[in-house]
Amino acid sequence: MVTAHTWHPGTGRVVSRWPVPVALAPDELFSMWLVRAALAQGVDPLVLAGHLWPKWRVWTIDLDRGINDERMSTLARESGIDAEKLREAMLLPIALVTGLEREAASAIWHWVLALGSRNRKRRGGLQYCSLCLADDVRPYFRLHWRLAWHTCCAVHKVSLRDRCCHCQFPIEPNRLAATDAMTSCSNCRGDIRHGPALPAADAALAFQDCADRVALTGTGSYGIHLLQAKEWFRLARYFLMLLRCAARRQVSGLGKCLAGLDPGVSRLRPPVTGLGFEMLPTLERSRFLEGVGALIMAGPEKLRNAVIAESMKDTSLRQGWPSLPSHIDSLVRDLPQLVRSRKAKGNAAAASMSRQTILYKWARLQRKMRRAS
């Protein structure tokens, strides 16, 4: 049975310098606790952050990645919550387990949903379960709702939402006003606990549970092989890449090979936006993660047999990756290399682009125009 995992225990009652002390709930996300604390004091999140850290534009960055010791000490002193307890509610501990290098300054962390911030506005990055929020005495947002492999609620067995059920805008609690509730949409002020709850896909829920256990225990399995968490998540990311390639070219040898291991691969469609995995909507991520779970469950021997059956070349499995996961690398080394012949240059017109390629280019152009405006 799939159950919800515990990421941090929260705190008990706290003694605070604030008029209304606000304890950290179990598994609560750090930035959303700060929003909840502001609303409890009767002020906007912007006002509380300005009081804590003057001249720092707090809500223009991803606070859940971490803050420096000086700023954390200020917050711990004001809130009455130990700094280490607050750090447990951030994303860095989990990101390090899944493969992040501590010194990395990447705009996007693998396996962590990207906020897509521009000033205080966000394009995504936060999911929620409307039923969990409805059950809470004091509604709060969970840490695991920021993890990219989470697409379901393990408690209620429903799909997570990443948009307001009324206006379809991203969830942006950081832009709430002092008079709003934690469950209000910052755009339309509707209650995000409303709206139909869609049932979760069993395969996506199973992969989510498996990935949670790997992140929490530090090890995971691939066939009979036991992998460290970093290598397991790297393997999962490699399979994500293969599935996206197969979704673009269903009739290719790669598409047929993966469909032989998981029939659901033949139903995958490439994201219209062409965005990275951490920026995709919940439903699109869910479909790809179902496939990743099936490929990991199949194990290396079944993958090897499927590759040989399709007479695949090494380039089909490398897909430009300079370094492959160890169990994939040993398989690829045994495959024949593709020898490309030089074609004479000609003046023939370029082949017309597919509809999907045109949509990719259009989505990319729109993103560039938004950044320039």
- Average pLDDT: 90
Order of helices and strands: HHHHHHEEHEEHHHHHH
Q: How does the helix and strand content classify structurally?
A: mainly alpha
What radius of gyration results from the CA coordinates? 23 Å
Structural domains: how many: 2
Portion of residues in beta strands equals under 5%
Keywords:
373 residues, mainly alpha, two-stranded antiparallel ribbon
Tell me the layout of helices and strands.
Layout: H1 30-41, H2 45-52, H3 69-79, H4 83-88, H5 92-97, H6 130-135, E1 152-153, E2 158-159, H7 202-217, E3 219-222, E4 225-228, H8 229-248, H9 253-261, H10 282-309, H11 314-318, H12 326-333, H13 355-372
Helix pairs in contact: 1-2, 7-10, 8-9, 8-10, 9-10
How would you summarize this macromolecular structure in one to three sentences?
41% of the residues lie in helices and 3% in strands.
Q: How would you characterize the overall build of this protein?
A:
- With 373 residues, this protein is mainly alpha-helical.
- The chain has 2 domains: 30-175, no CATH class; 202-333, no CATH class.
- It has helices at 30-41, 45-52, 69-79, 83-88, 92-97, 130-135, 202-217, 229-248, 253-261, 282-309, 314-318, 326-333, 355-372; strands spanning 152-153, 158-159, 219-222, 225-228.
- Strands 1-2 form a two-stranded antiparallel sheet. Strands 3-4 form a two-stranded antiparallel ribbon.
- The chain is globular, with a radius of gyration of 23 Å.
- The relative contact order is 0.09.
- Residues 344-351 have low confidence and may be disordered.
